[in-house]
Amino acid sequence: MPAYTETLPRVADSVHRARRLVHLALDVWGLAAVQNDAELVVSELLTNAVLHARRGDSVRVTVTRLGEGRVRVAVVDLSRDRPTTRAAGDDQESGRGLDIVEVLSGGQWGVDPLPWGKRVWALLGPEAKPDE
User: Fold this and answer.
1) Does 132 reside within a domain?
2) The domain that contains 23 carries what CATH number?
3) Is the pLDDT of residue 132 over 50?
4) How many CB atoms lie within 10 A of CB 100?
């Protein structure tokens, strides 16, 4: 499966670079239909890693073409702490990232534990069609 990947510093300024990586990959693959959603998802996943990962100075961002217009966006960090959703108040500026990922991915996101940390990923694009 074709993929683009980049290791970035675990800092807020890396969100722009991650969005650019995703934009470039989807542009090359002709998948403009999912570009905006994928850029927002990588922003939320990376921001979560920047704010909550307890270890490591870098993260790995990957966008993988799965075929049929579908892509997987993933962020790997060195923390084993699983991301959790929380209820954000109307006046809070944060706390909605995973809810956004949930909506944009149609609930198709998850966490893969790794020996050194975790991979948080989301699938985007049209649903797989059942065999006819």
Assistant:
1) no
2) 3.30.565.10
3) no
4) 16
Domain residues for the domain of 109 are 3-124
User: Which tens digit of pLDDT belongs to each residue from 2-48?
Assistant: 999 999 999 999 999 999 999 999 999 999 999 999 999 999 999 99
SS3 53: coil
> Does the residue 56 lie in any domain?
yes
Structure-token pair, residue 32: 């403009």
DSSP annotation of 88 reads P
Residue 113's alpha-carbon distances to 60, 118, 132, in angstroms, are 14, 4, 35
Task: Identify whether 76 is part of a domain.
Answer: yes
Measured in degrees and rounded to the nearest 5, phi and psi for residue 79 equal -100, 140
Domain count, the chain: 1
Long-range contacts of 20-29 (CB under 8 A, 24+ apart): 21/61, 21/63, 22/61, 22/63, 22/73, 25/63, 25/65, 25/71, 26/63, 26/71, 29/2, 29/65, 29/71
Coil, strand, or helix at residue 32?
helix
Q: Is residue 131 part of a domain?
A: no
